Amino acid sequence: MEIKVSIVIPVYKVEKYIERCLQSVFNQTYPNIECVIVNDCTPDESFVKATKLIETYEGNVDIKLLEHRQNAGLSLARNTGVNNSSGDYIYFLDSDDRITEDCIAKLVETAKENNLPEIVMGVTKGVDNLGNQVSVSAAQTKSFMTNAEVFQGYINNEWYVIGCNKLIKRTIFDVHHTYFIPGIYHEDVMWSFEISTYVSSLVLCPHITYLYYIGDTNSISRSTWGAKRVSDSITILDKKAAYLDKVSNKYLLMRHIKNECYNMVYSLFRNHYSYRDIKQYMKRINVLMNMSGIPTIKSDVPFYRRVIYNLYKFL
Q1: Rounded CA gap, 282 and 42, in Å?
Q2: What is the largest CA-CA distance in the chain?
Q3: Can you tell me whether residue 134 is helix, strand or coil?
Q4: Contact between 34 and 1 (Cβ < 8 Å)
Q5: pLDDT digits (tens, 9 = 90+) for 200-224
Q6: DSSP state letter for 175
Q7: With helix as H, strand as E and coil as C, how does 22-57 read?
Q8: Cα–Cα–Cα angle for 141, 102, 26, nearest 5°?
Q9: Residues with Cβ < 8 Å from 141, sequence gap 6 or more?
Q10: What is the dihedral of CA 175, 180, 92, 40, to 10 degrees?
Q11: Tens digits of residue pLDDT in 38-73
């Protein structure tokens, strides 16, 4: 039987782009697709436009329309889509982006050629305001065939950690229960980290399959770097630290946590956070930096970033 793919699309404040997104799904060359559209209580005409487009659609894509009773955020919208899907693989698509016509066909072909791995990652390209394709990440060049490779690849930024543009085997959710954490920014970062602790294969499909519209700024997944985003970043490091005795390479995770602490303080400094605010965040960051084993780990972040950290640590 042909592999079934469920495309999950959360919808929130994308009335300018939703038709472009859905049309790219309807144009897929692959025959066995389910499209699960989750209205996260969008206040604009996004869901109305989606519904009208669906009413005129006569293709083979099986469409499910779901609605939240109140706005719940990207993570829960994705989780709702997963829990109401029936595909062998799940594929996340943001509603202000689009996919190439052969996206699912190419990803499924790669999955079959590689013994149906847990994750198949396509190549994502950005699209700027002039319509030009631009690079969004250099971490889209190779496959990872053991868990040690997948985990090391995550730590070393060797694979693109966004949730979109990946065929994700249903067992990730049904067996491992690795869903997106609600209510936090950087949900993709944490989700990708969690799967990296056990996934045994992440295979690259070397074709452009996803177009990420960089200039579109009011969507469900784009927002500014404010106080909550900083706090959530520290929370994610707290959660990662809980995996220190569960990962294939504890040293790499300790170094990662230490580096991220240095980088975070430097980013706060560069973004002109007040001395008082940085000192408040430092209370949580120092707890991480003083965890067993981490003080002895050698960091490889630039020296000047460590200087900035020590400036706030000792003043």
Answers
A1: 37
A2: 66
A3: strand
A4: no
A5: 999 999 999 999 998 765 544 444 5
A6: T
A7: HHHHHCCCCCCEEEEEEECCCCCCHHHHHHHHHHCC
A8: 135
A9: 204
A10: 130
A11: 999 999 999 999 999 999 999 999 999 999 999 999
